[in-house]
Write a structure and sequence with these properties.
single chain, 269 residues, alpha/beta, two-stranded antiparallel ribbon, 12 strands, 26% strand, globular
């Protein structure tokens, strides 16, 4: 079996300080996302029992420093590749899909979400684009034969769902999946290879003919009620005389894309 673990560079929350004079972050200390390390630990434990090979993809903005490399040296890795991140999970998933597809992995793993920005869409986007079975927030895995896994995930009110997953599959794991085991001395030597990223033209998902956000530069809604203020910002109206395209009582799935565009444009202005 071939296992791919995707680890993401994050910044330690305690190390970040806001410089009010220069309006920027200072003292940002890069580290590996904790949930990704837990996924890597599970893969390491699995490989020892079932003779599996492990490759690691690192998504990082900066160069991999000695601290990051030192943490990865605790695990038996076949290859370790550094991919510069674009800061957009959709773009990163599309970029990684080509490399994952060429290598034909049986199992793709990463942490459920990042500690800093709480991003959690990378693995579902990657798995769906490759036609793999996808399951998120997995906290326990049991092996069932050579091509099947029993994945446990918690639901509301303490309920647990158990999924019979057929490989190949993509799973995002919580920190409960394994206990990290650190040794004082590095056991393995690794060589981190960096892939140079070619800038891609970002394509808009905006539907042709979609109305432009009704936003006036410098205009700030004065509605006292926060809900009315949000509806005003979104360009909707509760007035029965308004057109059907502007009447709404709730933001449905059809509104989500245009709602995000209106909100982001208003925040930028």
């Amino acid at each position: 079996m071939r296992i791919l673990v995707i680890v993401r560079q994050v910044y330690e929350q305690k190390s970040i300080h806001w410089d009010y004079e220069n309006n920027e972050f200072r003292n940002r200390k890069a580290t590996i996302n904790q949930a990704d390390l837990s996924a890597l630990q599970w893969a390491s434990d699995y490989s020892k029992e079932h003779n599996a090979s492990i490759d690691v993809y690192i998504l990082a903005e900066e160069e991999c420093n000695e601290t990051l490399k030192g943490k990865l040296e605790k695990f038996p890795l076949e290859t370790c590749t550094h991919f510069p991140t674009s800061g957009n999970e959709q773009e990163d998933a599309r970029y990684l899909a080509t490399f994952v597809e060429q290598s034909m992995y049986d199992l793709v793993l990463c942490g459920d979400e990042t500690e800093d920005e709480h991003n959690s869409c990378l693995l579902p986007l990657l798995g769906y684009s490759l036609g793999m079975d996808v399951l998120t927030s997995v906290h326990q895995i049991k092996v069932k034969g050579s091509q099947r896994l029993l994945a446990h995930r918690k639901e509301e009110r303490g309920a647990t769902q158990i999924f019979n997953i057929k490989l190949p599959a993509a799973l995002s794991l919580t920190t409960q999946i394994s206990r990290l085991r650190y040794s004082r001395k590095p056991k393995y030597e690794i060589n981190i290879v960096k892939e140079e990223r070619v800038e891609e033209t970002i394509r808009s998902n905006r539907r042709i003919g979609a109305p432009e956000p009704i936003i006036t530069l410098g205009h700030v809604p004065t509605d006292e009620n926060p809900l009315n203020r949000l509806i005003h910002v979104m360009g909707f109206s509760k007035n029965s005389d308004a057109g059907l395209s502007q009447q709404t009582k709730a933001l449905t799935e059809e509104h989500l894309h245009f709602t995000a565009e209106r909100l982001m444009k208003w925040l930028k202005e």
